[in-house]
């Protein structure tokens, strides 16, 4: 690509490791120059590069790394900071647009708080929570031994620390296949068919762990799956790869599948998408505000407007570890 090339919102989201909706918000706020070609948003690559260069971290006089932006936080920068240099910083880890909406609501209600976003998968998010690199982690990790979501992983990855597991939503996950499902893919054992090649998610993502756990409990050898080591960084990227004919099957949530032409979605199961907060942090008013926000009717209505979520338990504390 050359510097004059224009990028779509999806292209920019993948470069910055943020969600597509965050890209739209950045253009709306004037942080990134954008323009329309027909009905589609376009952003020049050189403007994205200028943005990245302007957001790089610098060392202060005391040799402590200081982050220079409020939002979004680029993933590489997060590895250089602890939970927050400033007690007024909140870092929320996860990739779903629900978290972008939550961050916006908290900023509106507490304008003295910086709400930052880390675009990492569930496994890495819990690891960072345990190591005080972030404040809150989202999680959707299926455990093959219990046939349940999240609790077992929170106990293993955040050991010895009492955490609240608060529901955000339920989402359908399943196979992404070419339109009409020409290879008749309906179950996990179909992945080892000789004429099947898959597009996988990265290690640490909820979908990758779901796949690996399902392979384990069904005694399927991953080495028999063509394309197992081909990884994409988002549901949308997997869906687009299948639509382009780069593979016969991928796995992701239904919401992303509905945004891509040329593929069908074959439901596997319903996943639980939760937020994990350390119980000891509830002494800080900001965490109480976050929970109240999630439990509010206003927040529920806004998430309902996005479509694709079952909100029957939104805001409920489903478990405590």
UniProtKB/TrEMBL annotation:
One of its GO terms (molecular function) is DNA binding. Gene3D superfamilies: Periplasmic binding protein-like II. SUPFAM superfamilies: Periplasmic binding protein-like II, Putative DNA-binding domain. Residues 103-295 form the PBP domain. InterPro entries: DNA-bd_dom_put_sf, HTH_17, PBP_domain, SinI_DNA-bd. Pfam families: HTH_17 (PF12728), PBP_like (PF12727). Residues 7-55 form the Helix-turn-helix domain. NCBIfam families: excise. This is Helix-turn-helix transcriptional regulator. It comes from Clostridium beijerinckii.
